[in-house]
Task: structure prediction
Amino acid sequence: MPRATAPAILPGSGGMRGALSDLFWRRPQLLLLIMLLPPVLWLGIVYIGSLFALLAQSFFSIDEFSGLINRQFTLKTYGDLLQAANLDIILRTVTMAALVTLASAIVAFPIAYYAARYARGRWKALFYLGVMLPLWSSYLVKIYAWKLILAKEGILTWLLAKLHLLWLLDAWLSLPVVGGNSLSVSFTGTFIVFVYVWLPFMILPVQAALERVPGNLVEASSDLGASPGQTLRNVLFPLALPGIVAGSIFTFSLTLGDYIIPQIIGTSRLFIGQAVYSQQGTAGNIPLAATFTVVPIVIMGFYLWGAKRMGAFDAL
Amino acid sequence: MRSDRGQSAPLSLKIAAACGLLFLHLPILLIFVYAFTTEEKSFVWPPPGLTTQWFAVTWNRPDVWEALSLSVRVAAISTAIALVLGTLCAAAVSRTKFFGRETISLLVILPIALPGIITGIALRSAFSLADIPFSFWTIVLGHATFCVVVVYNNAVARFRRTSGSMIEASMDLGADGFQTFRHVVLPNIATALLAGGMLAFALSFDEVIVTTFTAGQQQTVPIWMLEELIRPRQRPVTNVVAMVVVLVTLLPILFAYYLTRDGDQIAGSGK
Result:
């Protein structure tokens, strides 16, 4: 008997595997559910669960005499947060985060603009790697490198001595808040290292935003008689703003939470992250530590809400 | 400025961009010089002399080897978990529209968008509430959670570039779902997964903040370095380890860039 031509509709492939495969094909919702279940369960239980555990802890309080945690709902720990010393920590951290964000935006802009508008081909790849490599190289090593640079006997002092500018460094270090014994134990040092470590997070979104600006827009602006400065202020800056806001989400949020940089390069006056760390560790006051972490969460919540309204998420 | 002057950048912009890039790179290069310095006690610049003896000293330090081994094991297992979870999530999100899709992408990104200290202390307070003792696995739990996003970002970008009609064609030709996955989907996303995996490995290898909260007595390489930064024992050994860490993290990243350079974006959404 001659073999018949293949039927238009194949029979089911048979077996467990075939049956499963057919089932998934007929009911894509089921497949979707099975694909989503493991990641959602993991992130939901491990991460969101932990966040709720943290939030719950922030409503507990610590018994000042026994040092034990009193697991009863109270707002007392939030009241402790309003003590002058703690408010001081919050204010210091937020000011630093704002300054770091501003400085990152200023330093990032020329790099991002050059990469977006002038770099082509091999140069473009080089610029990309030039930003990616520092972004991904070890965070602690970067801080360590700056310890070497900013230390009293380090490279910066040597450089300034060669340039006969040591008087400038001394004058700066003798200033009240920003100065200190050496750059590696001053707010100036903390600021420089924060800007350095978060800078790539600002460059990438600004570059993405600038890449969407058509080149002839800039040309039209100059043909109409605008000076380069006017073009920058009235054309480029407004168009790059969503990118800057997107980058600032990272620089701002990361500065709010960091405790390693101010600990290694900084004064003894605390930042939020350090307060959290010492409250949960040495002081054993987990409720107060939890309350402190709620501060950056709330600040970032408002920040993200504002950023979304400015269209920053499209620039990410 | 007239527009017919061509595509050359103004000098001031060139200088500003070059200075910015130098600012980003010189400090890292400096580490390489310090690994060879003969100075033991302080950070004297320029180095009084150069030597390779610290490499031998570092080689013979058991604590360095223990930290390295723990870091590699944690990073390997976290990467494996992140590969599975991230790929599943990316496949689901990129193929279909469903209720709660935005929420799920937010859920994946959140562990990395919020500062590390929040992830760290949240996990720690959950462990203490649930009476889970610190171990190798508590570190992995934290690392895998924030590594998912890197795999997810890379996989989603690749899924979006892969045409759905290929899958339909494969099914029309008689392959079942599993054969299609093995012979059509997997080869298409393999390099993106490899790149995502390498970045996840680098991210876990480097993570310090979450690890301080989820580790008990164990020391990963970053924890070891942090300890040395706060209470230095032998500075030159720290210099050598720092240099090795730079090399160990940079090579996977260069390779990941090479794998995804046409089209996909390397997950730049940060740590």
Observations:
- The CA atoms of residues 58 and 131 of chain A lie 39 Å apart.
